[in-house]
Amino acid sequence: MKKVKIYITLKPGVLDPQGKAVQESLHTLGYEAVQEARVGKYMELIVDDNGDVEKQVEDMCAKLLANPVIEDYKYTVEEGVTQ
Amino acid sequence: MKKVKIYITLKPGVLDPQGKAVQESLHTLGYEAVQEARVGKYMELIVDDNGDVEKQVEDMCAKLLANPVIEDYKYTVEEGVTQ
């Protein structure tokens, strides 16, 4: 088993209304120091260790998990997860 | 300025229907090796460097960004971001 951590973020320049809402809410709560907030997704997958896991994860991100038109993604693969 | 990265995940044991949907979609696409998928949130904040940024971020997570009843959060603070 491998544990895969995937980070999906909006590309720079893509409007992020959810991030804007978070920023404004933080200001309302008194955290005026927050200059910018951007919201993305974080996923953890447990994947059977057969074949090229990195290649599979790259494909999964490009085909389903992220929208490559407006989103960037990064991932890390951790070895030897036992369940 | 400091760049803060926040990772919000559902606590272990909390049902994750969104993760389940992702897992089933991956299976439908042929990625049968995926044993589990859990979906969380990832946020990036740019914060003015006045006072104890870590303390402020801890408060923001507990009060607004995460739901401490069902979610865990982690964050990292990176020094010296220039805009």
Automatic annotation (TrEMBL), chains A, B:
InterPro entries: PurS, PurS-like_sf. Pathway: Purine metabolism; IMP biosynthesis via de novo pathway; 5-amino-1-(5-phospho-D-ribosyl)imidazole from N(2)-formyl-N(1)-(5-phospho-D-ribosyl)glycinamide: step 1/2. GO terms for cellular component: cytoplasm. One of its GO terms (biological process) is 'de novo' IMP biosynthetic process. Part of the phosphoribosylformylglycinamidine synthase complex involved in the purines biosynthetic pathway. Catalyzes the ATP-dependent conversion of formylglycinamide ribonucleotide (FGAR) and glutamine to yield formylglycinamidine ribonucleotide (FGAM) and glutamate. The FGAM synthase complex is composed of three subunits. PurQ produces an ammonia molecule by converting glutamine to glutamate. PurL transfers the ammonia molecule to FGAR to form FGAM in an ATP-dependent manner. Part of the FGAM synthase complex composed of 1 PurL, 1 PurQ and 2 PurS subunits. This is Phosphoribosylformylglycinamidine synthase subunit PurS. It comes from Aquibacillus salsiterrae.
